[in-house]
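thought: fold this chain, then report.
action: predict
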Amino acid sequence: QVQLLESGGGLVQAGGSLRLSCAASGRTFGSYAMAWFRQAPGKEREFVAAISRSGDRTYYAESVKGRFTISRDNAKNTVYLQMNSLKPEDTAVYSCAAKDTAGLSVYVRASSYDYWGQGTQVTVSS
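observation:
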């Protein structure tokens, strides 16, 4: 089992940047495909970005492509989400998720993931 702890959220003006981190417990971080999801008030959770176990494959939601970058450091058991050119519509609770897999793919459906963090609030003011 893995535990996930997000950090790095906060309040930022539109056009600004934030970097989220998700630290994972355990010694098998490299066995997990990872992703970030977000949920705004009154809305369903939505996919943001995903990364494969090795980090060589990534995938983004159209709404964040070109502005957000997902990366991972397996030596530090951490996955990151660099968010640039933030917009008010990016305001949400951002959660990281882990999928225990032997494959090399990325996964975009929330139901594919086995473990979730508690989330970190990102608020973008206009």
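thought: worth noting. The first strand starts at residue 4 and ends at 7.
final: tokens above.
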